User: What shape does this take?
Amino acid sequence: MNQKNKKNQVFVYEGYLTIEASLVIPVAVMILVQLLFYGFYCYDKSVSVQCCYLAGLRASNEWELTNTQMEQAAYKNAVELAEEKFLFIKPKEQKAEVFMTNVKVELKGSLRVLFVDLAKRKDSDWGIDSQKSAIYLKPSSYIRRRK
Assistant: This one.
């Protein structure tokens, strides 16, 4: 509101809008940033499941490899895909296991979230723990094992 002082012709502004804006705008920005980080988290979580399956599938298609070589190939594929595909997730651990009928790959990682980390809590990261299996069925070795 403007009030006109008749003596000096000076306009006086009330400061309630400035105080409200200084409280509301930072809270709104924090909420928008958290929503943005949640979108990145959802994207990286779905990409991690795809990377697990793709690494297992690529390793399971190599029929001439032994089980240990197949585990190494799946692990290598998982590491390469995680470095290539993730936006903000920091991969912490990749693991690959080969069973008689499938190749299982696991990825673990975390996303450090802004504004939650200000409290210096240990649980301020959003974790991702994805695992997926790809069918490994080499017909001749499968039949020999079943005899």
